[in-house]
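Sequence, please.
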């Protein structure tokens, strides 16, 4: 079985495929070929059953995938697959898998960082420090005890968030399509019960994938269903949240604030009121970033590679019909 690994590995790119990664993959395949670009791959004439490449943002290897005579499986080491779903690769008779699940630890830590920052008034303390003011806030810094943290899209990443949240003392509830008891969750609700669940949440962590059903899921009516003073955290996809509706809910005082790692548009205009709201924390879609990212992605790919060779079902298979 032959494997093609393709990744740019530019100097300014923190996520790099290194020789040790290729050596690990070689231990589970007959031949492994590495290319930095699709142009290099096409010029080589190499073909293979498996392609391991970045399927996130940027140009997708459509020419190779459409012309390949052997390709059966495309594994992207991005969790987000919207760029793949927006090109012709989605229509090919191949398996597509993603890197769902490897982001749990860094995204969980980042989420809890937002939560603690809001509870303990860290943004105000930093603002005072820049003004050379050392004084206690008028409103008492808070704790997690007696509060509810809710996770909308309670999957693999949500499991990490829930684990950390329980350590702080939160009651944790989740919302997902299929309801069943889960570790570190006090209760789980169905998608149809979302508005009911939102009314209980002091912190709303958005972790839903971007699909036809979730685009604009958090709109004006959904924010109205939120508990007064709720704090919104979006570490999923920007288009899941209606940004104008969010701004209105913040300006009205109904929401207590938000942390936005994902936002629509990604290039937020300089005149957006979100920049200057003291209860808004904006980060550059970096919650999944970690120096261990590629190590975890390669480890996950090798597990699936062994499944593929043995004829066993693969995990993290993308449901193309749901995303296109």
């Amino acid at each position: 079985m032959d494997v093609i690994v393709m990744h740019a590995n530019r100097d300014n790119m923190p996520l790099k495929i290194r020789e040790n990664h290729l050596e690990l993959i070689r231990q589970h395949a007959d031949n492994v070929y590495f290319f930095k670009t699709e142009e290099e791959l096409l010029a080589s004439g190499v073909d293979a059953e498996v392609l391991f490449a970045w399927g996130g943002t940027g140009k997708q290897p459509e020419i190779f995938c459409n012309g390949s005579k052997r390709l059966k499986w495309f594994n992207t080491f991005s969790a987000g697959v919207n760029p793949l779903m927006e090109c012709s690769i989605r229509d090919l008779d191949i398996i597509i898998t993603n890197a769902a699940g490897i982001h749990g630890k860094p995204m969980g830590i980042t989420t809890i960082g937002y939560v603690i920052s809001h509870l303990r008034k860290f943004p105000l303390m930093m603002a005072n420090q820049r003004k050379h003011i050392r004084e206690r806030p008028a409103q008492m810094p808070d704790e997690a005890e007696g509060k509810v943290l809710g996770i909308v899209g309670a999957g693999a990443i949500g499991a990490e968030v829930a684990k950390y949240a329980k350590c702080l003392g939160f009651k944790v509830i989740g919302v997902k399509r299929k309801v069943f008891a889960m570790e570190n969750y006090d209760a789980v609700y169905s998608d149809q019960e979302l508005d009911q669940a939102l009314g209980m949440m002091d912190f709303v962590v958005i972790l839903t994938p971007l699909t036809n059903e979730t685009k604009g899921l958090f709109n004006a009516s959904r924010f109205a269903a939120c508990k007064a003073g709720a704090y919104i955290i979006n570490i999923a996809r920007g288009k899941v949240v209606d940004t104008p509706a969010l701004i209105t809910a913040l300006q009205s005082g109904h929401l207590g604030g938000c942390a936005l790692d994902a936002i629509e548009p990604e290039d937020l205009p300089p005149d957006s009121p979100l920049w200057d709201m003291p209860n808004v924390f904006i980060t550059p879609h970096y919650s999944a970033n970690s120096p261990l990212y590629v190590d975890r992605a390669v480890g996950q790919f090798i597990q699936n590679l062994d499944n593929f060779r043995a004829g066993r079902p693969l995990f993290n298979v993308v449901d193309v019909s749901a995303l296109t």
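Residues 293-310 form the longest helix (18 residues).
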